[in-house]
Amino acid sequence: MILSLFDQFMSPTLLGVPLIGLALTLPWVLFFQPGARWLNNRLMTLQAMFMNWFVKQIFQPMSLGGHKWAALLMSLMLFLITLNMLGLLPYTFTPTTQLSLNMAFAVPLWLATVIIGMRNQPTHALGHLLPEGTPTALIPVLIVIETISLFIRPLALGVRLTANLTAGHLLIQLIATAAFVLFPMMPSIAILTSILLFLLTLLEIAVAMIQAYVFVLLLSLYLQENV
Amino acid sequence: MLSVGQLKTHHSFSVEFVISRCFAGFSRETSLRLCRRARRGRNKKQGARRSNNSASQPSVMLSRLIVVSVNSLKGCGPIGAGLVHASRSLHTSPQSLAPLPPLPEKGGKVRHGIFPEELFQLLYPKTGVTGPYMLGTGLILYMLSKEIYVINHETFAAASIGTAIIYGVKKFGPTVANLADKINEEKVAKAQEVKDVAISSLTQAIDDEKKEQWRVEGRSMLFDAKRNNVAMLLETNYRERLHMVTNEVKRRLDYQIALQNLHHRLEQEHMINWVEKNVISSITPQQEKESIAKCITDLKVLAKATQARAAA
User: Fold this and answer.
1) From A28, which residue of chain B is nearest by alpha-carbon distance?
2) Which residues form a coiled coil (chain A) (predicted)?
3) pLDDT on residue B57
């Protein structure tokens, strides 16, 4: 069978068993549970430090009602970062390249923030549809525009993550293929391509972390508006 | 098919430890749910164990035995004891939770970052120092030549991410480790400081108490000194009063003496005056003329004697 460049994004199955379940749950074993100890080893200390720092970062500007979301957003962040970073290893499958997964995260969470806003403080939530200081003539147009932007948010969230990761993986595969094919023919060009591949890998590591952070940050912002 | 007892791997990452730790945090409801599922699968499981050939059963059934933690099943009634007994081969450490054994200071020793040192020690008696390296080289060449591992574009991607990871670990590893150690050290130092402050304040209190006791011992000397002082004051006072009394008595007696002297003198003067008065009154004028004439003749004689002496 002829492999196309997009075959790396096919959801893997083995004998009819969808392995994406395994890909989604196995990262769980990588995180250490805080044991019954006061002083932990280095990994546990670093993990706890990271979680503390992250929760403080995200939830400092948030009012008290939004703090209920701390566990959800923290675990979402860890999940996304782990999936993204593990996907950079060779021969791995990144579940976050599937649009279905990312939309499954984005739409319910975004909808939850909107519904919370509409239920608890409907005027305030609707007030977000009109930015302050707009000239009177532009108000109808702006309301329509803001409503459209509100409904585009889940789409943007999901597609942003999917597109970034898919593009990154695709580029890695393309440039790696180029280096591989050029290697017997023109080794010097292959070396240049390999250098490009290395830089791209560094970029992809950064993108993996940044995209996960952006996803969670935007959700926290939407929550801040509405809580 | 790996039997359950052969699941031991490197001690810091043994699978059953990790999985049991993962599931140890389950709530009671979840563990009961797992328990019921385990109970439903019990007959099938017992069939698998008795037949001793789990190839006929799907592997997911046996994995349920491994995956469910001992702790969450203990309270599950009659099934719990059976499962605990059955999974005893998985127990590699004493079961008590307290006192917790101390965590090892560092992780297991590894060579080249991934290969545990135990592998090298295992192979050393038979193949010496280069044994594991020959094994590694042989395996890699075998996989390459038989095309079990095919070199393709992923190899290049693996090389580049491998370089990135190794570079990152080598460069930032010590920094991050020091950061983690520093956080732990600060935690310990804070607790230690509390302990030290408590100890020092208590030692200070002990010293103060001892000083107070020493002071109390000296108090008897203080009382003695004070007693001496008071005694001296009393003595002085007594002496003063004695002196005063003596003086007063002497004054009284002096007065009496002076009075007596006065009496004596008065009597004497009175007597003399009386005698003189009487004598003078007894002198007649005749006698007076005779005495005066006698005095004049005496004087003439004396004057003549003196003139004679002066002329001589």
Assistant:
1) B22
2) none
3) 44
